[in-house]
Specification:
By secondary structure, the protein is of the alpha+beta class. The protein folds into 2 domains: about 1-185, Ribosomal Protein S5, domain 2 (2-Layer Sandwich), CATH 3.30.230.10; about 190-320, 2-Layer Sandwich (Alpha-Beta Plaits). The chain has helices spanning about 75-95, 120-135, 140-155, 160-170, 200-215, 215-235, 245-260, 265-275, 300-310, and strands at about 1-15, 25-40, 45-50, 55-60, 100-110, 175, 180, 190-195, 280-285, 295, 315-320, 325-330. The strands form 3 sheets. Strands 4-3-5-2-1-12 form a 6-stranded mixed β-sheet. Strand 9 and strand 10 form a beta hairpin. Helix 1 (about 75-95) runs antiparallel to helix 3, helix 5 (about 200-215) crosses helix 6 (about 215-235) and helix 6 runs antiparallel to helix 7 (about 245-260). The chain binds (3R)-3-hydroxy-3-methyl-5-(phosphonooxy)pentanoic acid (PMV). (3R)-3-hydroxy-3-methyl-5-(phosphonooxy)pentanoic acid binds near residues 16 and 160.
Length: about 325
């Protein structure tokens, strides 16, 4: 039996603009998905996922029938199955064991579809654990690349490398098109996450931004302005002492530009304002938007307490920067 875990992430800067070749800086956070894999004697794959903020479901597929046995809403299961199916294919391919059967259990404390990179964390941990169970150890670059291919397929070619690379490597990373690297010597980033309990539709939100950008030159300029801000943020991050106040200002600016592109939501804006009014350095939505999570920079208790009392905020938690990335638990 093998167990691997991988972290979720927040976007410090650059979501949406990254789709058009601008840079982005996602940061891994101390919230993980853990995947346990055990080889079976037959060629079937059985998945048990009790803790994906779904109600809990078990699917079994492979063998004679392609139809899974399941008991939760179809779209959520289809998405989860697509990711796990892709992860199994990648692990089988890496280990040159195309017919290997596997029992897979997934546990995650990352809210689903809420801008925290839950699917990437599950895919990274699943490929790593399954490949090891089949006798192959993948290097981190190869693992990140295989995980990206899975996300890319499941999301119809719309996924950037940000989530999968960040989850594999840990820490703060910089992604621009196919270029990706870890940012060295990033100091502590005191993140707080606010979660409205919902999720945006990434495909729809990305399509909405594309349409605005195609229609209005000023929307295209807004996307470019996000790219400019990321360059500045990345320089600040790698200086001697991280200037949290300046980083926070850039986060506020980034949220404003995302709002202008139509991807914020009332619940996200009200959490952002609650955090700012409580004295945070800065706050912005993270991920596709439309609902889900915001990320706040705050080293006091202020923002977390304010979010705890903000109507529409279902959960607020502190989330330190995770410097490990994928971890082999056993
Ligand atoms: O919501 P998430 O964490 O899947 O992030 C989506 C980020 C986008 O830039 C909108 C799309 C992408 O794949 O980069």
């Amino acid at each position: 039996m093998t167990v691997s875990s991988a972290p979720g992430k927040v976007y410090l800067f650059g979501e949406h603009a990254v789709v058009y070749g601008e840079p982005a800086v996602p940061c891994a956070i101390e919230r993980r998905a853990r995947v346990t894999v055990e080889r079976r004697d037959d060629d079937r794959v059985r998945v048990n996922a009790d803790d994906l903020t779904l109600d809990g479901f078990t699917v079994a597929w492979g063998g004679e029938s392609d139809a899974p046995e399941l008991n939760v809403p179809n779209n959520l299961v289809e998405a989860a199955m697509g990711y796990l199916d892709g992860a199994v294919e990648q692990a089988r391919d890496a280990a040159e064991a195309p017919d290997a059967g596997l029992d897979i259990s997934v546990e995650s404390d990352i809210p689903l579809g809420a801008g925290l990179g839950s699917s990437a964390a599950v895919v990274v941990a699943a490929i790593d654990a399954a490949a090891r169970e089949l006798g192959t150890e993948l290097g981190r670059e190869a693992l990140a690349d295989r995980a990206f291919r899975v996300e890319h397929d499941v999301q119809d070619g719309q996924a950037s490398r940000a989530d999968t690379f960040c989850s594999t490597m840990g820490g703060a990373v910089r992604v621009q098109g196919d270029d990706r690297r870890q940012l060295d010597e990033v100091g502590n980033l005191p993140f707080v996450v606010g979660y409205d309990g919902g999720a945006g539709d990434t495909g729809e939100l990305v399509a909405g931004v594309r349409e605005l950008r195609d229609r209005h030159p000023f929307a295209a300029d807004t996307v470019e302005a996000i790219g400019d801000l990321v360059w500045e943020g990345e320089t600040l991050l790698q200086g001697e002492d991280t200037p949290l106040d300046e980083l926070g200002q850039l986060m506020n600016f980034n949220h404003g530009l995302l709002s202008a592109l139509g991807v914020s939501a009332r619940s996200l804006d009200s959490m952002v304002w609650a955090a700012r009014e409580a004295g945070a350095y800065g706050a912005k939505l993270t991920g596709a938007g439309g609902g889900g999570c915001i990320v706040v920079l705050d080293d006091s208790e202020g923002a977390k307490t304010a979010l705890d009392y903000t109507p529409g905020c279902e959960e607020a938690f502190r989330a330190e920067l995770d410097t490990d990335g994928v971890r082999r638990e056993s």
